[in-house]
Design brief:
The chain is mostly beta strands. The protein has a single domain, classed as Sandwich (Jelly Rolls), CATH 2.60.120.1140. Helices cover 9% and strands 31% of the residues. The chain is built from 2 helices and 7 strands; from the N terminus they run ββαββββαβ. A hairpin with a 2-residue loop joins β1 and β2. The protein is globular. The protein starts with a strand and ends in a 21-residue tail after the last strand. The relative contact order is 0.25.
């Protein structure tokens, strides 16, 4: 399972929205969500049909947070031109994690408290080793 980190601190378990269906679905149909969801190569999101508000972090190509916002259900965000990736989480998560603009996030395939068995995701923020 991938993990979302900041400065080697685990923030949350991570789902990566891979494929068109997963990207369209996102957090739709869920009543709550533990962890975070990563959308790669994305500049905006929507919350149409969402059942709960979400925190959204717009990140650059290196997974540095360039903007955060709370998105209420049934909204569409304006594209953030410099964004390349987006992290979504249930509203309140970013405050609990202390996530803010300027933070550099990282994706790891193994929990950092356990030995890495070569399970790195190779995704954004990962050096593939």
């Amino acid at each position: 399972m991938p993990w979302l980190l900041r400065d080697d601190e685990v923030l949350a378990s991570l789902e990566v929205a891979e494929g068109a269906a997963a990207r369209r679905r996102g957090l739709l149909g869920r009543d709550s969500f533990e962890g975070a969801l990563l959308f790669e190569n994305t500049r905006s999101v929507h919350s149409l049909g969402m059942r709960f508000p979400m925190d959204v972090a717009f990140c650059d190509a290196d997974l540095v947070v360039i903007k955060t916002m709370r998105v209420l259900p049934h909204r569409v965000t304006v594209p953030v031109v410099r964004a390349r990736h987006i992290v979504e989480a249930e509203a309140g998560s970013f405050a609990r994690w202390g996530l803010c603009v300027g933070d550099r996030l990282e994706v790891r395939g193994e929990h950092p408290d356990r030995p890495d068995r070569g399970g790195g995701s190779g995704g954004p923020g990962s050096d593939g080793h």
